[in-house]
Amino acid sequence: MTKNDNTHRNVHQLIEQLSQAAQAVASNDLSLLAKMHSWCEALFATDSESESPLSDQARQLAAQLENLILGEADDPAAAISFVKNGIEALGGKDANPEPPPAGSQAAGPIVESRGSADSTAPAEESEPIANETDNANEQPPSPPEKTEQETQSAPSDATIEAYEQIPLEINENELEFIKGFLEEAGEHIEAIEAALLDVEREPDNSTNIDNLFRPFHTIKGMAGFLNLRDINGLTHEAETIMDQARKGNRKITPGLIDLVFDVVDILKAQLGEIASYMADPQGNVIPQPPIGEMIRKLRGVIAGRIELEGREPMAGNADNKVGENLVEQGAVAKEVVNVALDTQQRTRPGKKTGEILMDMGATTPKQVSQAIRPQTQKKTAAAATGDLSVRIDTAKLDGLVDMVGELVIAQTLVDVTADTLADAKLVKNVNQVGNIVRDVQELAMSMRMIPIGPTFQKMARLVRDVSRKAGKKVRLEISGEETELDKNVIQQIGDPLVHMIRNAADHGIETPEERREIGKPEEGTVHLSAFHHSGNIVIEIADDGKGLDPKKLIAKGIERGIIQEGEEISDQQAYALVFAPGFSMAKQVTDISGRGVGMDVVRRNIEQLRGKVEIKSDLGKGSTFAICLPLTLAIIDGMVIQVGTERFIIPTISIEQALRPRPEQITSVQHKGQVLNVRGRLIPLVSLGELFGLTGPVNPCNAMVVIAQCEGRPMGLIVDDLIGQQQVVIKSLGERFKHLKGIAGAAILGDGKVGLILEMAGLAETHARTHVTHRRATSVVAKPGDERAIADIVEEETVAAGECTQDTADQDEKTLVEV
């Protein structure tokens, strides 16, 4: 069978299918209209090489059908009539269909976007039809040719077709659909940004361009279904440009990459406005970014009327081995494969070549299976596994985890009861149930765990933008993106990562000139990694830049009044100054950074996640910021402590050590409290019994001291006893008690009693406000020369008092005991 025979047969099949559909089509039948649109596109793709009027008429019909689908036809009835007459003309029944109705823009946006020789648009493949009809003997007149004056005049910006934005309104009946669209669109935008960076690095890799095309196409389809006209139009034009690049008709330049990034930014803005409206509906109209201007610019680029700035262009290529295998097997002719490949490029790039050939009736599923089996057996198995996944509302998942938490608590109570009864058989059965409960708990917690990779990938765009604005060359390296973390933790770690990555690229990495002078490569590196360590997750942000200079940090701290001149502080304490509010080493304020806001918020947010930040730096070689986080916010490893008649839980991530101090280690400062000397370090002491009103003054030497880290500084907590380490399920304190300082939550212990989970930063603030002192501890006279150091330590430990009064603080402390 020759190429012409195949083309002839496909044309007849499509015309017959369109003719059957035209008998029942109506302006409100979106499903049938969409099918007819795809068939017209397929007809245009199949017959475009012949340059016949048939191809042009198919294109105009497709444009008219798209106007009907998007609700842009002024007179739907006239538009339907035009479509029916046009299809009759395609079948040879009427050589002169009526002209398109006024205002319908039959050759509107679609025709404009495809007007240039190097522009294309997606098309849908049709299902094969066995029946054949007569050839189309007569065709409608082709569009009028341009006049000589129009041909000679150079195209101007004014000739680019405008796009009129209309107010965006959401139908209340479609709220659930739009909610799902927002979620999926966000994932597709992340895929677009990742693919754009891949295309920028490897412009010759056709797979990268395909990966960029697919999410645009998917967003376009979903937006069209939901009548989100602006999003549909914007993604359509972007998709057209990508299709040009995919076919080799448009060269990939840095200017093109920047343009697509601009499209992504506008898409994000529009999706954000829709999401804001969904969260708090105010009226019916939703704010809109300048999508119309961007669509006009894209149309100008597509038509070749707007030149994109950039360096020398880079080219791409393509490959398809499935079609070659089918030809070698004698299953299909090479010309048929070429038609399928062309159809694939004009429709969804995600549709396989073999599927298109089966839709055309050119081959059988068995032949395709034999052709792809050697290359795709492993990939098919992986895909089959992926198909077993389902989407679950996070609220349901959270409810399941909460119920499993209740089950764990109930199991703990049963364990205690079984031990009390001392029945061997009962203990054995209870232990077996306990093992099952632990397995269920681990499984339930794993369901909340998601890879941190998507969050890391967002940082790639940030590094690119910051480095360009700062005139630097910075490469982001990512490792450990498969590391899993609780979904709630990942949602809250995004903002701190943005601040720290921005600082690494803007402040840490030197300019290319500075790096050349000191013998470093012009391109700096920021390494973002995640890994497990001691039951926690560690996220590291490392750069090979200038590092932190402790002397400069100390000088800036003195200038800002954060520390006293002549005060002795270690390098680690100097590094911790970067987290002070308003602290900045930037010489000038830019739109990127320099105002000193951000890092203090970073520390506060991480501590709210029960995590901590550690800094390592080598002057001239770079810095490393390590964020240590718990795997989940639902369960915590903690040390159970006894204070008076109550028990509390200290997160193990905050604990440095525990000891029973000797008298010579305790130093008392009048009206300032006590400090503990541990290997030369003076650590302020806080009596939890006095702080919470549970006990009177306590002699530290007759108690235990738990040294915990609070905002990078140690604090000694005086407790009566250590009960032991335990994994507990965190319970919220509810609306009434959630604002209490120093308390992160509660947990039900093995005996059924409630233990409060302590939060170190809040404890330090509460201690500073209440000015609890410990005058009745061991009376030790300070050694000569120690008074200044002790006063400095106590001064450092004191934090600014909040707006709460002493009475309010006392009331809060009484309430804690009642819980």
Topology overview:
Layout: H1 3-22, H2 30-47, H3 53-69, H4 76-90, H5 109-113, H6 148-152, E1 168-169, H7 175-201, H8 206-225, H9 229-246, H10 254-279, E2 285-286, H11 291-302, H12 321-328, H13 334-346, H14 353-359, H15 365-386, H16 394-421, H17 424-447, E3 449-451, H18 453-470, E4 473-479, E5 484-486, H19 487-508, H20 512-517, E6 523-533, E7 536-543, H21 550-559, H22 571-575, H23 599-608, E8 612-618, E9 622-630, E10 635-643, E11 646-651, E12 655-659, E13 666-669, E14 673-678, E15 681-687, H24 688-691, E16 704-710, E17 713-719, E18 721-729, H25 734-737, E19 743-748, E20 754-758, H26 760-770, H27 786-797, H28 806-818
Parallel strand pairs: 4-6, 11-20, 15-17
Antiparallel strand pairs: 1-2, 3-5, 6-7, 7-9, 8-9, 10-11, 10-18, 12-16, 13-14, 14-15, 16-17, 19-20
Oligomer classification: single chain
Largest sheet: 6 strands, mixed
CATH topology description of the largest domain: SH3 type barrels
- The portion of residues assigned to helices is 40-55%
Rg from Cα: 35 Å
Number of domains: 6
CATH architectural name of the largest domain: Roll
Major sheet strand order: 12-16-17-15-14-13
Overall pLDDT level? 74
Reading off the top of the CATH hierarchy, the class of the largest domain is best stated as: Mainly Beta
Distance between the termini: 86 Å
The rough form would be described as elongated
The fourth-level CATH homologous superfamily of the largest domain is SH3 Domains
The percent range for strand residues is 15-25%
Classification by helices and strands: alpha+beta
Total strand segments: 20
- The number of distinct helices, counting runs of at least 4 residues, comes to 28
Low-confidence stretches: 93-158, 310-320, 373-387, 772-819
